[in-house]
Design goal:
It contains 8 helices and 17 strands. It is an alpha+beta fold. The chain folds into 3 domains: 128 residues, 3-Layer(aba) Sandwich (Rossmann fold), CATH 3.40.50.300; 51 residues, no CATH class; 56 residues, Nucleic acid-binding proteins (OB fold (Dihydrolipoamide Acetyltransferase, E2P), Beta Barrel). The longest helix is centred in the middle third of the chain and has 14 residues. It is globular, with a radius of gyration of 23 Å.
C-alpha cells in the first residue's frame, strides 16, 4: 500500500464541486506536485489532506491509517505555506536577496545568485526599484525571482537528503517539472493526468494539458494509410487535434521541409531563439537553439520540418474550467 492514499476524495461547497472523486497514491519518499490553474482544486485537496478542510466524500490513508476525519495535529503531517508577498520598503534586489541573507549565505554568493536570477526573469534593469514602482506583472516576476533564488531546488535537496514524502501545490509548470518525481495535473476539480514530468511533457493526454504544461502548436490532422498521425495541410476538418512542441520543429532552407513559412517575429532568450512563423496552416511557434549564428530577419522565407513520431494525438478536454 502507498504511504499516502486518496480514495475518491471529494469536496463540495453547496452546488460547487471543488474536488471531484480524486484518487492518488504517493509512495514513501516521493516528491509529487499538484499542478493546475487557480481554482482547479489543488489547494483544497492539500487542505483536506492536512485536515484544515472537512472532507465531503472519500478517504485519506496515511501509512495504512485512516486519517480522513482526524484532527490536524494528530495526522503526523507538516504543512509549509509559502507567501510571495513583497516587502514594500525593500528594493527589488533586496527583496530577492532577503531569503539568502536570512540563511547567512556569503555576500559575494548572494550578489552572484541575485544577479543571475534577476537576469533570468528580465528584471536586472529594475533592481533598485521598489515594488510600488513596478507593474503587476513585474511584481509577479520579483516574487518568482525571490522563490527561484532559494527554491525550488533547496526544497528538493532537503527532501532527497532526509527522505521525506513531499506533496507540493503549484501553478508554476516549470517548478513542477523541474523537481517532481510525478506531477498531478488538475482542472476544474478533477485529476486529468498523473505522470513523470518527462512523460507529461512529451505525451500530454488533452489539449488543456498540452498547452498548460509547456507550450505547443495545436494542429489539425488525420491518420495516414499506416495509421500514423499526420498534419492536414489542405483546408477541411481533420479528425484529430495534434500537438507539436516548438522545439521539435526544425527550420530549414526555403523550398525544403514539409511546410513553407515566413518569419513574423523573433525573440532572443540567450540560449535560444523563439520565432513566430506564418504558414498556410496558421501561425506556428518555433524554438531554435542559439548556435551563435545571426537570427532570421522579419519576413525571411523558411522551410519547416519535423519527425512524424513527434506529433502527439490529443484527446478532447474532459472538463471545462
Amino acid at each position: 500500500m502507498a504511504f499516502l492514499q486518496l480514495n475518491a476524495l471529494s469536496k463540495r461547497y453547496g452546488a460547487v464541486d471543488a474536488v471531484v472523486a480524486t484518487d492518488l497514491a504517493v509512495e514513501k519518499g516521493e516528491f509529487v506536485s499538484l499542478l493546475g490553474p487557480s481554482g482547479c482544486g489543488k489547494t483544497t485537496t492539500l487542505q483536506m489532506i492536512a485536515g484544515f478542510v472537512d472532507v465531503t466524500g472519500g478517504q485519506i490513508l496515511l501509512d495504512g491509517r485512516d486519517i480522513t476525519h482526524a484532527k490536524p495535529a494528530s495526522r503526523g503531517l507538516g504543512v509549509v505555506f509559502q507567501s510571495y508577498a513583497l516587502f514594500p520598503h525593500m528594493s527589488v534586489r533586496d527583496n530577492v536577496a532577503f531569503g539568502l541573507k536570512m540563511r547567512k549565505v556569503p555576500a559575494t554568493e548572494i550578489a552572484s545568485r541575485v544577479k543571475t536570477v534577476l537576469e533570468l526573469v528580465r528584471l536586472a534593469p529594475h533592481a533598485e526599484r521598489y515594488p510600488r514602482e513596478l507593474s503587476g506583472g513585474q511584481r509577479q516576476r520579483v516574487a518568482l525571482a525571490r522563490a527561484l533564488v532559494i527554491e525550488p531546488f533547496e526544497i528538493r535537496r532537503i527532501q532527497c537528503e532526509v527522505g521525506i514524502t513531499t506533496l507540493m501545490v503549484t501553478h508554476d509548470q516549470a517548478e513542477a517539472l523541474s523537481i517532481s518525481d510525478r506531477v498531478v495535473v488538475m482542472q476544474a476539480g478533477r485529476v486529468t493526468q498523473i505522470d513523470a514530468p518527462y512523460k507529461l511533457y512529451e505525451h500530454p493526454r488533452t489539449r488543456f494539458i498540452s498547452d498548460f504544461v509547456g507550450k505547443a502548436n495545436l494542429l489539425t490532422g488525420d491518420f495516414d494509410q499506416l495509421g500514423a498521425p499526420q498534419v492536414r495541410f489542405e483546408p477541411g476538418n481533420g479528425e484529430l487535434t495534434l500537438s507539436l512542441r516548438p522545439e521539435k520543429i526544425d527550420l530549414v532552407a526555403a523550398g525544403s521541409g514539409r511546410l513553407q513559412g515566413k518569419v513574423l517575429d523573433s525573440y532572443f532568450f540567450g540560449s535560444q531563439w523563439l520565432y513566430r512563423i506564418k504558414t498556410q496552416i496558421g501561425e506556428l511557434t518555433v524554438v531554435r537553439r542559439n548556435d551563435g549564428s545571426a537570427p532570421l530577419g522579419c519576413g525571411a522565407a523558411v522551410g519547416l520540418d519535423w519527425e512524424s513520431s513527434l506529433l502527439r494525438v490529443l484527446a478532447a478536454d474532459e472538463v471545462h474550467a
